Amino acid sequence: MTALLSIRGVKTFYGNIQALKGIDIDVNEGEIVTLIGANGAGKSTLMMTTFGNPRAREGSILFEGRDITNMPTHEIARLRIAQSPEGRRIFPRMSVLENLQMGATVVDAAHFDEDLERVFTFFPILEKRISQRGGTLSGGEQQMLAIGRALMSRPRLLLLDEPSLGLAPLIAKHIFKTIRELNRREKLTVFLVEQNAFHALKLAHRGYVIVNGEITMSGSGQELLTRPEVRAAYLDGGRH
After folding, report:
1. Domain that includes residue 137, residue range
2. CA 20 to 30 Å from 4, out of 68, 82, 188, 211?
3. Same domain, 230 and 201
4. Residue 127 dihedral angles phi and psi, to the nearest 5°
5. Which one of 155, 175, 207 terminates a domain?
6. What is the residue-level pLDDT of the chain in tens, covering all 240 positions?
7. Is the pTM value of this prediction over 0.90?
């Protein structure tokens, strides 16, 4: 299998505090790969480092064999890597349509209508809310909009940071189902950071466990689901 994203020896700091301590991860083309870990383990830092902010102080990040470690974020986006960040970060004063237009700025405008249709196929509620301001949507709708905005850039690689955070179980289920559909139907490669370990590992082809900025375990989603240390730390009593 070809690694679409290859992270090697990545170390990231916030001032003098080391958040990532030499991370090695591969995300192969057509896979869903998840990174699970406790709060503050470094999950979101790795996601943001991949997207160029903060920068890795050591190590390398390759996308399709090309070194993107020191590339500015906007140039990384042009390579058709899209991020749906933690906390959604949609534009609250803009309408749903305007938010989706923002996502499409890095690609050829000729496909806009077609891409819009595609987003509405996955998230029909957004079509009903098309002229509504982003900030007036429910949490679940905002999450759908954040993913929809990322999809408008026709990504080769979708970085999803905590997509189920703060959502009602039913909405979270819908989000996970959509991720699976996107991967199945369109072979979209997804790198997913998620605190809901049970759902994330059920969804993923492969998973990694991060503890205090270091990868401590990796394997198929199924394998990690059955590992006693994973169950004890992330699954027992934590299912939704």
Report:
1. 92-155
2. 211
3. yes
4. -65, -40
5. 155
6. 679 999 999 999 999 999 999 999 999 999 999 999 988 899 999 999 999 999 999 999 999 999 999 999 999 999 999 998 776 689 999 999 999 999 888 777 788 999 999 999 999 999 999 999 999 999 999 999 999 999 999 999 999 999 998 898 999 999 999 999 999 999 999 999 998 899 999 999 999 999 999 999 999 999 999 999 998 888 764 444
7. yes
